[in-house]
Amino acid sequence: MAPTGRPTGNVLIVGAGPTGLLLAGDLAAAGIGCTVLERRAAETSTLTRAFAVHARTLEMLDARGLADELIATGRRVGALRLLGSTALDLSRLPGRFPFVLVTPQYETERVLKERALAAGAEIVHGAEVVALRQDAAGVDVDVRTAGGETGTRRASYVVGADGVRSTVRRELGLPFPGRAAVRSVMLADVRLDEVPEGVLSVGAVGDAFAFIAPFGDGWYRVIAWNRRHQAADSEPVDMAELRDVVRRALGTDHGMRDPRWTSRFHSDERQVPRYRTGRVFLAGDAAHVHSPAGGQGMNTGMQDAANLGWKLAAELWGWAPSWLLDSYHEERHPVGRQVLRGSGALLRFALAEPRWLR
User: Would I find Flavoprotein among this entry's keywords (predicted)?
Assistant: First the structure.
């Protein structure tokens, strides 16, 4: 395609999580018309899912002028005690960011959203994608608002960054092969009477596993797994059970109290066979989902976005070679596969802790 004086089309992104927001910011900064559709009506949430931002992601954010602002919202972790006496010294990592940043996902989303809006992206909340159809020239997306009204938007390209239950992936008819990695994991956001010695606390003893991370505002995220009690995701979390599991795994429950949110979940290991189908792309959890071990999910999705954004911009500005958009799948699919295998191995290692590590 020969270069033109203006972009030849636009991009519609489904999903306003970190993956979709980073992509929107990159496209808008490159002068590409970009709209993000988000099913959730609320623009912000005090609840959080991911909270670890890795060094590679911080480098990527630094290139966009965002790293220092995000770092100011969280806490730096320079060393990780993995299990027992096994430790990882992150201060030896090369580069500007020899640490893991612990910050709530909503802070990451806030920083990315502000950048995207400032660059000219449109973000629409309460907009649920219900169907899509593509032809040789573009993609028609049927959207239902929170009020029940329906309409159709057309875009040159669509990116599904709409999570593990991706509507975009479903509309493409793509399988999502894989398996459940672990079931009945308990989550809770709580206050602690006793501040843990380290920034992150993790332990596994016999049939109990627990992990505690601070949000920096007095709240802590607790993740715990009880091999003795494998309940359905719909079963409420019992705080007595949670305290018992944490005490067994860590030796103390740190005076856990005042839960503001609890949930159970199961973690899958799945990956879509291809990240591109015609004019539609998948990124983040819509393309790959893995165990929470290592905190890789959000980071991998944001790196998907960084890879795809400039390539879509190049195509729409008219200077991309014919193979460039296909290289997104070729480059990112192997990375997703490696993360899936690595995080899965780490999870199984943690939940089946051998006695010699204790």
Answer: yes
